[in-house]
Write the C-alpha cells for this entry.
Amino acid sequence: MAKPYCLCSAQDELYQVPANFVKEIEKHFSIVWNEEFNSNSEVYSDKIVAIFSIHQQPKITKELIDRLPKLKIVAVAAAGYNHIDVQMVRSYGVKVSNAPKVLDETVADLAVALILAAGRNLINGVKLAMSPSTTFFPKNDVAKGVFGTTLGIVGMGGIGYKVAFRAKAFNMKVLYNNRSRRSVKDEEQVGATYFSSLNEMLPLCDYVLVAVNVTPETRKIMGWKQFELMKTSATLLNVSRGVTVDQEALVKALNCGEIHSAALDVTDPEPLPRNHPLLTMNNVIISPHCGSATEMARLAMIGKAVENAVAAVEGTPLPSEVCD
C-alpha cells in the first residue's frame, strides 16, 4: 500500500531536517521536499496530507494552505507553536499538533546548567583560565553560588516543575507563579510555595526562571517594573521564548545594576544582531536555543509529530492536538 505524502522543508543536518528525522518520517510517509513541491506543485498539491513543521520550516502561510486541498494536519516537531497562525490553519479544517512534555527533562537540565553557570560565574572563569594572556588566577574573585538560594519559577508547567525537582538537590527554596495553582501534592513533592502575584514573588528570589508558554499575556511578562522589583543581586534566566522578556528593559536593568546578571537560552530575534548590547556584557550568558538539543529529546519530538500525523490521516484522535 502506498504511503501518504507529506511536505518537509529540506534535508539539512545543520539547519533543517536531519537524517534521523527523515528515517522516522519515512516509516509512514513519502516525503516531498519544499523545493520539489514548488517546482512541481501540480503533481503534489492533491496528494500532500501532512506538513511537518521542523525548526519552524516550511513557513505555514495562507498561500501554502490554499495550495493543499487534501491537507489534514500541520504537525509541529516542537513544544512551541507560536510561529503558526493556528486559527487560520484550523479554519481550513486542518488540525495542528505539537510535541509537549517530551522535552521537559532536557530543557530542565539546561535551565539548571544556566543557573549553575551564572551562579558560579563559570563562563568568565573558563575564559580566564584558557586565555593566552592569563598568568595568575585571582584568589578573591568569588561568585554568589547556588546552594541554599531562592529560585522563583515563572510558569510551573512541565519544564518548570522538572526544574523544581532538580532545585531540591541544591537545597534551593522554590517559589512559583503560575496561571493556576498546582495541587498540594505537587507542591509538597518539590517543596514549592505558590504566589498568585508575580510581582510579590520577585523581591524574594535570587534566581528568576522564565518557563511560560507564549500567550498574549506572557509577552514581555518580565519588563522594567519586574526588574525594579528583583534584588540587585538576582539573576534572570529564560528558557521559554525571547518575546517573554522585554530585552530593552533587560539591557537597561543590567547596565544600571537593577539586577545582577542574565542567562538566556532564547532571545528575540535568534540569533541577536551581532552589535546587540547583550552580546558584549560579561554578566550575560546566551546559549543558542539548545534546550531540547539532545538526541533523545529530538527523536521523541519527531516521533510525537509522526504519531499525530498518522492519527490525522487515519481519522483518530490526535495525541497532542493544538486547539487554541
